[in-house]
Design a protein that fits this description.
mainly alpha; about 75% helix; elongated
Length: about 90
């Protein structure tokens, strides 16, 4: 018996990491698309006399996330992630 790591397991880890890298690129594209939509909304809000922060809308977002979540992330995990995303979106300068 050897203490050498399994090359098959190493290959599989490499494959998973490659897929993660691809997914991360997709996420970046989607986050940038989301940011563009957020900036467009921000530009329209003064015309309807709406403030920048809309707590009701944020709760709608969290509710929608929970509805479409199929796991393995918990809804609380998604809420935490999206709280960070929403914070960044509010800080964007467009």
């Amino acid at each position: 018996m050897t203490d050498q790591p399994s090359s098959e397991a190493q290959d599989k880890i490499g494959e998973h990491r490659d897929r993660i890298d691809e997914i991360d690129c997709q996420l970046v594209k989607l986050l940038n698309a989301r940011a563009a939509e957020s900036l467009a909304i921000r530009g329209l809000k003064p015309a309807v006399h709406w403030g920048l922060y809309d707590p009701k809308r944020e709760e709608e977002i969290f509710t929608n996330l929970a509805k479409c979540n199929g796991g393995p992330l918990y809804s609380e995990n998604l809420r935490e992630i999206y709280e960070a995303i929403l914070h960044v979106m509010k800080e964007l300068r467009g």
